[in-house]
Design a protein that fits this description.
With about 270 residues, this protein is mainly alpha-helical. The protein is built from 9 helices and no strands. Helix 4 packs antiparallel against helix 5, helix 6 runs parallel beside helix 9 and helix 7 packs antiparallel against helix 9. The protein is rod-shaped, with a radius of gyration of 42 Å. It starts with a helix and ends with a helix.
Length: about 270
């Protein structure tokens, strides 16, 4: 009996040892599988995060502007955009007009003087008529009255000089209006955004970044875009004013030289 008991006990311990080893092996396999799953999930999430970061980094300037335009609210960003579009359209028109109005005044005066030496006032007029620009137009008006005396020529040159100056400054008032309106719309959007933020705080009964973020974003974006629009238009506006002043100086200096030629050669 003792021998049978020892054999039974030994077999029982052997079986228990085998079961423990099997359980330990099963736990190791499960842990290995769990680690593999976690690594697989992390490996899948990492490329996704890298892809999202890459997408953010590769956004074009146009896409960023579009997103900010939408975030700022179309109701307030559209007037600012219209100010930029109409203002730039008028600026381009003025720049083209002023560039076409630029004349080589010295060369024109030399041609008039050559014809005046020969007494060919008709040829001098044709030369001015075939030359573009306000200076040439003023000279045409003066030569049309050459037979009426130098006093009438001087009056015509002075009067038509004022007309040409007004044409040079055409649409400048509208450009100035858009320069003033753009930041005004931006500031109005800012005020509305702040009011919206306070309304959200009152409704939520709590002051937190999440509650006021929407209204503050509208306020800041409309102000930024309004100021940027005004700055762009103001730079071109000053450039146009410089061009106009240059042309006006040419008109004044050219008119004086023109009258000197008439006094010298007209009999």
């Amino acid at each position: 009996m003792s021998i049978v008991g020892l054999l039974t006990f030994a077999n029982f311990n052997h079986v228990m040892a085998q079961d423990a080893a099997a359980a330990e092996a099963t736990e190791q396999v499960a842990a290995t599988d769990e680690n593999a799953v976690v690594e697989s999930v992390e490996a899948e999430e990492a490329p996704a995060e890298e892809t999202a970061t890459a997408d953010d980094d590769t956004k074009s300037f146009h896409q960023v502007l579009k997103e900010k335009y939408i975030q700022g609210g179309a109701g307030w960003m559209t007037p600012v955009l219209l100010c930029l579009i109409f203002g730039m359209a008028l600026i381009i028109e003025r720049i083209l007009y002023l560039n076409m109005a630029t004349t080589n005044v010295q060369k024109l005066l030399e041609g008039i003087e050559e014809n005046a030496k020969k007494g060919d006032w008709k040829g001098a007029r044709e030369l001015c008529a075939n030359t573009r620009g306000p200076v040439a137009s003023i000279f045409v008006q003066g030569l049309d009255r050459i037979d009426q005396g130098l006093d009438n020529v001087e009056k015509a040159v002075t009067s038509y000089g004022g007309v040409q100056m007004a044409r040079l400054e055409n649409n400048m008032t509208w450009i100035g209006l858009f320069i003033a309106l753009a930041p005004s719309f931006g500031f109005l959007g800012t005020v509305v955004g702040m009011v919206q933020a306070f309304d959200d705080i009152e409704t939520a009964g709590d002051i937190s970044p999440t509650v006021v973020a929407g209204g503050m974003k509208v306020a800041l974006l409309t102000t930024i875009f309004g100021l940027i629009t005004a700055i762009i238009l103001q730079i071109f506006y000053n450039y146009i004013l410089t061009k106009i002043e240059s042309l006006v100086d040419q008109m004044e200096d050219g008119s004086i030289s023109f009258m000197d030629i008439l006094v010298k050669y007209h009999k």
